[in-house]
Amino acid sequence: MQSNAVLEYDYSIAKLFLYSTLAFGFIGMLIGVVLAFQLAFPDLNYIAGEYGIFGRLRPLHTNGIIYGFTLSGIWAAWYYLGQRVLKITYHQHPFLKFVGLAHFWIYIALLVLAVITLFAGITQSKEYAELAWPLDLLVVVVWVLWGVSMFGSMGVRRENVIYISLWYFIATFTAIAVLFIFNNLAIPTYFVAGTGSIWHSISLYAGSNDALIQWWWGHNAVAFVFTSGIIGVMYYFLPKESGQSIFSYKLTLFSFWSLMFIYIWAGGHHVIYSTVPDWVQTLGMVFSVILILPSWGTAVNMLLTMRGQWHQLKESPLIKFLMLAATFYMLSTLEGPIQSIKSVNALAHFTDWIVGHVHDGVLGWVGFTIIAASYHMLPRMYKREIYSRKIMDIQFWIMTIGIVFYFSSMWIAGITQGMMWRDVDQNGYLAYQFIDTVSVLFPYYLIRAIGGTMYLIGFVMFIYNVIMTITAARQLESEPKSASPMAA
């Protein structure tokens, strides 16, 4: 078997996905900040006509972050680490490189079409599945191409062991493929009626069945993109950057298989107190609470990987990103199951506490993991040291404070909403009108907008550091073994 030193890895596809990570991360976060300020100052909804209203921008924000920023980050990591853990190179396998390039460019075409159609208000009105049916078909093509790249690479591998990260990538590929197709089964109305918009379709399901299938998909879009995909990224870059072996292989096995079995049944907690059968609601709640075990098993495994090496937190900004990412994963995967308990859900559902839960996971866990992975890959892909350690440090603290502002304000706002909505006077009438809750939440919405702005500023610093690393940083003669030397 050839050693890593002999193989000359081809990072051209990983670089392309890194660029799209930066682009869609900035676009998605910028739109998110605009939306946050719109909630605090409603008049901002009307500055761009119909194209600037909250309802038109929100799908762009969610799709841009989930399917633009996050998937780009996962795929940049795959095209970087896949070659290394399988001991192959695209120089030796031009077909795999062709598939990877096709994967990237069709993906970019899909994202451009998604932006255009969502801006135009063309949507099938399903959470995390807004794209019109022709684009759903293109999604399938993009996903199949990733599968060909991944399983094709494994088929020609020169390493017998399938590394942990690839387990999670396989799980992401398989689960999303099945769930996406079933949730998006629809009948295009143009071909039935012969009139109307070619973009329009009707779901194959109706009523409560549609809600069940939608949240079977919706929650697992989080489970198998934000969770299993990002765990795969973390399990490679944490030991590589820290120089430490993963704490426990047995804990990895337990966490992986239990996460795969339990997570897929937790989507019912999105439809508690709805018209779906009560047993489905209870099942979703029970599996959500049990989900704490594999989630914390993974997070503890990551944190204990740093046993005896905690001094690296002080020495390496990159390790700070990775460790705080694991910490936010623990926080988010405790908070979500708590919110799924029926008595808690009665207070939390439809409130900003749910928004806070989503964002402490996405901003802290997903965002920090992708940023850390990008910083690790840069010196190796471009053979240049990171441009500025100081920028990394400042970026870390600005973004961390921004996250704290964001989720703490949303926790307070959400619990305030829930308490006001259910408060009654001595005669049993509601004590507050809905507009009363809107008015009292203004300071928390403003704090949330400030926190989001701080995170965006940190991300702009990240983009600047990446660009300067690529174009102006000192060249390295050899690949760094762990964190590269960094300029002040």
Run of helices and strands: HHHHHEHEHHHHHHHHHHH
Count structural domains: 2
Average pLDDT over all residues: 94
CATH architecture title of the largest domain: Up-down Bundle
User: The CATH topology of the largest domain, please?
Assistant: Cytochrome C Oxidase, Chain A
Radius of gyration: 23 Å
State the total count of DSSP E strands: 2
Q: Quickly give the structural class.
A: mainly alpha
Tally of helical runs: 17
Rough outline: globular
Write down the CATH class of the largest domain. Mainly Alpha
**Fraction in helix:** over 70%
Quaternary structure state of the chains depicted: single chain
Biggest sheet: strand arrangement: 1-2
Hey, roughly how much beta strand do the residues contain?
Answer: under 5%
List unreliable stretches of 5+ residues.
484-488
Main location: membrane
GO molecular function, one term: oxidoreductase activity
Binding site for heme b 2; high-spin: 357
Transmembrane segments: 16-41, 62-81, 101-123, 135-156, 162-182, 214-238, 247-266, 286-306, 318-334, 354-375, 396-417, 454-473
